[in-house]
Amino acid sequence: MENLNINYDQTVSNTTVSMITAGAILVVSVLIVLLVLVIKRWKGRFIPLALGLLSYAVFGFMFSQLLMSVISLIPTVDQAFSYNTNAYVVMYNILLAAGFGIARWFTAKMMTDRYNRSGDVLMAGAGLAIGDTVITYALSMFTFFVYAQAISANGLEKFITDMFESGMAESDVVTLYTTNVSQLIDSPVILWFLMGVSAVLDIALNVLLFMVVYGVVKKQVNYMYAYYAIIAQFVSNIMFQLYDAFSLTNIIVLFAIKLVIVAGIVFFIKQFVMKEIKYSDD
To answer: Rounded to whole angstroms, how far apart are CA atoms 192 and 102?
Structure first.
């Protein structure tokens, strides 16, 4: 431990823990309100919700993870990812957006014979959005929250000691500290709440993008919009993942850009695409 060159007087502020909690509460609240609203107002059914979740798990998450594993087997590519984490993030998000596009298409194709209510389409989009939220936001925030609570309660030295006692190698402890712990300690606290707001933006976007692909599958919308949805997914995701975690200005600027991009996409879909989509009333 003496060779790690870590200042053990550092700790995670209570404000950071509060911001992580606030962001998580915001995301959960939005999802609950979304589901209740769709079920009560538009009579959404649970089968499309489950179908959306399953499609995301198979074609979104597993697809991107599998392809990233295959690509990482190439020595030169693996080395490039090791020295340039931004390259890894960009490549992963390209594959994730492509997998998400397949998931949307598969879900819409499976729904067209029986689940054609507007509420069913919204429920399927919510299922895809929930899958994305759990994988890209909830799991990482839960990990950060556990780390933050442990460090805040027992101190950084005890946290590092516990990592060694659990059997972690020194290189893994260093990686954990530089990628997660240092971010918890030194990042602007607003970052943790903005992550929650960013997840909410993704939820809204994912629901609308599925509606677009549903319209494509029903041949009510130009087929090119299915490809535009993949591009929109990638741009939205990547915009708030390449930030400098220790720069407040960088965080605010990139979040503002993402907000403008998502708002622009949502406005375009509502004005020029949604009016073309027709649903069944039965």
So the answer is: 30
